[in-house]
Design a protein that fits this description.
- The protein is of the alpha+beta class and 80 residues long.
- The protein has one domain.
- The protein is 19% helix and 29% strand.
- The chain is built from two helices and five strands.
- The protein has a five-stranded antiparallel β-sheet, with helices on one face.
- A hairpin with a 2-residue loop joins strand 4 and strand 5.
Amino acid sequence: MNNSIYKSNGKMRGERLTVKAFKNSDDMHRFLNKQSDNNWKEHNGSVAGAALATKTGKYAFAGGAWHNVKHLDVGMLAHI
């Protein structure tokens, strides 16, 4: 079972996912219960790859897979 949540920027083209991982489910649910806008959703594995389940960061979809933005080349990131 993973303890991560995500939110999308809401764009069809250039969608970015922000993923937040927690050490345990109590911390995750405490965070989810305090939010006022319900933008964060529990990660169930169907939204993105398994790597997103445990790693905090921003992700972009490129080449058929989700990649951490900080690992993408600036030139490639401009075209996503």
